[in-house]
Amino acid sequence: MADLHTDFIGIKSPNPFWLASAPPTDKEVNVRRAFQAGWGGVVWKTLGSEGPPVVNVNGPRYGVIHGPDRRVLGLNNIELITDRPLEVNLREIKSVKRDYPDRALVISLMVPCDEESWRDILARIEDTGADGVELNFGCPHGMAERGMGSAVGQVPEYIEMVTRWVKKHSRMPCIVKLTPNITDVRKPAEAAMRGGADAVSLINTINSITSVDLDLFAPQPTIDGKGSHGGYCGPAVKPIALNMVAEIARNPATRGLPISGIGGVTTWRDAAEFMALGAGTVQVCTAAMTYGFKVVQEMITGLRDYLDDHGMALSDLVGRATPNVTDWQHLNLNYTTKAVIDQDACIHCGRCYAACEDTSHQAIAMLPGRVFQVKEEECVACNLCLDICPVENCITMRELAVGEIDQRTGRPVQPYANWTSHPNNPMAQAAE
C-alpha cells in the first residue's frame, strides 16, 4: 500500500491533502473535525493584527455558478479574513496543535505592510507551536483596498520585502500564497524566492462577479441592493491553477521551489494532476464546503490506489509531468491523428456531427440511419467531437505513423518538426 506521508519544507503530515485557509478552517471545532475526518493538514483561516476584529457582511457572502445538474462549478465569496479576536484564534491553534502533533498546522497571515506589524504577529504565532506560516498575498477583495492581500501580491518588490521581514523575525517555514490576478505569475514567485520563501502556494481566488440579479440589477451576492467583486474558486478555476503551477515548476529561476497547489481540487485525480505538475501538497476548500470534510477519504483512497496500480511512490508522482509542458513553438507540427467513431458504442445523438458541421471542419458525414462517419480527407483532429461526445471512448484519435499518407494533405507524415524551423516561420528563415 502506497505511503502518503509527506514532508513539505520540513512540515510533516500523514497525507498531502490540506484544507486551505478559508471558512472551513476558521475555528477549533472545525479543524478538529477535519483532522478526525482524515485531513493531513490545515491552513488556519487568515489572521490579522491585534485590535478590533475585521467586520464581515451580515448578509449573503457567496455567489455560485451551477452546472445543469446543480453541481457547483464555481464559488465566489466576499468574505474577509477572520472576524474572531486574535487571542481566541491563538489559544485555539495552540490547543489543536497540542492534540494533533502529527498533522500539519500552518497559519495564514495578513497584516499591514510594515515590518513592526509582521514582527509582532510572528512572535505570537511561534508561541502556539504551529508548524509554519502562509503569507496571504492573494485575497482580491476587501483587504486589497486596505493595502493588503493582492495589493501586495501584485507588486513583486513588496512580496520580496515582506518575505524578508518574515524570514528575519521567524524561524518557522514560510509559504507565500500568490495571487492569480496578475499577468505573469513567475514574477511574484521569483520575488518570493529572492526574499527567502521556503515555498509558494497557488492559486488564491480570482477576481470576479459570478452573476447579476436581473430583478435587482445588482451583482450577486447582493447586500442591500448592492454587490461587489469577490474571489472565485472551485472546479472552474482548476485549468488556470494548473497552468500557473506548471509555469513556476518549469521556470529556470524558480525550478525546485516547493509548491502547494490550490484551485479546484475536488477528487484524487485533480490532486494527482497538481502533483504531477510539481506540487508537493494540495490545498482544498470548495470541495469541503460542498461535500463536507469526509470528501478527503475518497481522495486518500483514490490516490493510494492509483500509486499502487502504477507501482509508484508519492515522490515519483511529484513533477512527473513537468518536463512534458512546453511552449507552443516546440510542439511537433508534423504529429497527425484522425478521429475514429466506434459504431457499436455510438448512440446516434448527432452531437459530433452538429459540432463539426457548424463550428469546425465539416469532417463528419451523416449517412442514412443516422450513422456518423469521419471524413479523413477533411479531419484535422481538433478533438472537438471527442470532447463533446456523451459516450466515453466512443470517439478516439488514431495516430498516423511517419510515412503514412494523410488523406487531408495527400502527403506522407513527416518526422518531428516545430515552429522554430518551419518554412512558414519568417524568423526561422531570417536565422538562416
TrEMBL record:
Pfam families: DHO_dh (PF01180), Fer4_21 (PF14697). Residues 337-369, 370-400 form the 4Fe-4S ferredoxin-type domain. Residues 412-432 are annotated as: Disordered. The keyword Iron-sulfur applies. Keywords: Iron, Iron-sulfur, Metal-binding, Oxidoreductase. GO terms for cellular component: cytoplasm. InterPro entries: 4Fe4S_Fe-S-bd, 4Fe4S_Fe_S_CS, Aldolase_TIM, Dihydroorotate_DH_cat. The keyword Glycosyltransferase does not apply. It catalyses: 5,6-dihydrouracil + NAD(+) = uracil + NADH + H(+); 5,6-dihydrothymine + NAD(+) = thymine + NADH + H(+). It is an enzyme of class 1 (oxidoreductase). One of its GO terms (molecular function) is dihydropyrimidine dehydrogenase (NAD+) activity. Gene3D superfamilies: 3.30.70.20, Aldolase class I (3.20.20.70). Its EC number is 1.3.1.1. Residues 417-432 have a biased composition (Polar residues). It comes from the Bacteria. Heterotetramer of 2 PreA and 2 PreT subunits. Involved in pyrimidine base degradation. Catalyzes physiologically the reduction of uracil to 5,6-dihydrouracil (DHU) by using NADH as a specific cosubstrate. It also catalyzes the reverse reaction and the reduction of thymine to 5,6-dihydrothymine (DHT). PANTHER family: DIHYDROPYRIMIDINE DEHYDROGENASE [NADP(+)]. Belongs to the dihydropyrimidine dehydrogenase family. This is dihydrouracil dehydrogenase (NAD(+)).
